[in-house]
Design brief:
It is built from 14 helices and no strands. It has helices at 2-41, 49-56, 62-97, 109-123, 130-149, 156-180, 183-194, 202-221, 223-228, 233-238, 243-265, 271-283, 289-309, 318-340. Helix content is 79%, strand content 0%. By secondary structure, it is mostly helical.
């Protein structure tokens, strides 16, 4: 019996691995094509293709060098890296809680980042940058959600309920700050709150790249323990997983990934929500962190290309495009969840 089942198991795992590699390769190709299109055709500056290609690699001169290498290339890279971080954070939270609707948006992490950043923008707090405040707000909300959810351990359901409540409070704070601010501060805050890549630069690229590398390493270290969460807390603990400690660490890691991306681009909605389920459906497995990051990158780069080039509506903030895409996806996930429950 074992002689029959073992070769079949090996073949099944080989097919699974080959499918994952094929999907990831296709997603990488889509990212390259979309990023190239964004660099070549997005924006209003009229630059010849012969000047644009060398400028994209830092070898151009004059207007082409500035427009392409200093604005379009960083913007495309920020879209790629922030999308990967949103996708990875959403996938991590969905595995952590065991629910596809559990994302940094639902658990209040993004709302915390928005509230902290809006406070700095509207109140003019001296010595504190928007990016630092957004990260601090997200991590603070993550810690608060975990502490308020604690009762002889942390239940995933209690975690979601507390996160929704904390997120609502943070959103209320953001609304209050906007209503009390002057016109110029409101304009800056609203542009940031919707989610826009208009101010992308090489500094943001470096921050996002370092965060993605560090976050991927930490996620790889904790991946074995995270896989046991699918078995339930009791069985995971019996297998040696320190459930509460790992859950708190994963909660902070996901918050950090989403917070850094949010601090650069603003809260680009629904990317964290849809990336994980799409990746799992493409690779036909729940452990799809790499695919989720790539799907997030495809979504944000594609949405930013549409935001800059779509007729009749462009230019618009990138977050408005992802909202149009993500709202039907959220409705679909809610309806599907009700049918399967």
């Amino acid at each position: 019996m074992t002689d029959v089942l073992l070769p079949e198991l090996v073949r099944g795992r080989r097919r699974e691995r080959n499918r994952s590699l094929a999907v990831c390769a296709a997603l990488c190709a889509a990212i390259v094509l979309l990023a190239a299109a964004e660099i070549l055709i997005a924006g209003s500056a009229d630059i010849a293709l012969a000047d644009m290609i060398p400028a994209a690699f830092g070898a151009g001169e004059g207007l082409a060098a500035y427009v392409v290498f200093e604005t379009r290339v960083p913007r495309a890279l920020v879209a790629l890296l922030s999308g990967a971080l949103f996708g990875l954070a959403g996938h991590l939270y969905q595995r952590l809680v065991g629910n596809v609707l559990a994302t940094p948006d639902i658990l209040g992490i993004s709302a915390g980042a928005s509230a902290a950043a809006t406070a700095v923008l509207t109140l003019g707090v001296a010595g504190i940058g928007v990016q630092v405040s957004a990260v601090a707000g997200a991590l603070g909300v993550a810690a608060l959600v975990f502490l308020l959810s604690w009762h002889r351990g942390v239940s995933p359901y209690r975690l979601v309920l507390v996160g929704i409540g904390i997120g609502a409070c943070a959103s209320a704070i953001t609304t209050y700050l906007v209503t009390r601010a002057d016109e110029m501060s409101v304009e800056r805050a609203l542009r940031w709150m919707i989610g826009s890549l208009g101010g992308a630069d090489w500094g943001g690229v470096r921050v996002l790249l370092v965060t993605l590398v560090v976050g991927s390493v930490l996620l790889a270290v904790g991946s074995r323990g995270l896989r046991t969460f699918a078995l339930g807390d009791d069985l995971a603990a019996a297998l040696g997983t320190r459930v509460s400690r790992l859950r708190f660490g994963a909660l902070l890691l996901g918050a950090g990934l989403a917070a850094v991306a949010t601090s650069i681009t603003g809260p680009i909605g629904f990317v964290a929500l849809v990336s994980g389920p799409l990746a799992a459906r493409l690779v036909r497995r729940t452990d799809a962190a790499v695919a989720a990051a790539l799907v997030g990158a495809v979504i944000v780069v594609g949405a930013d290309l549409i935001a800059q080039t779509a007729p009749f509506i462009s230019p618009v903030p990138t977050g408005s495009i992802t909202a149009v895409i993500g709202a039907p996806a959220l409705i679909y996930l809610l309806v599907r969840g009700r049918r399967t429950s």
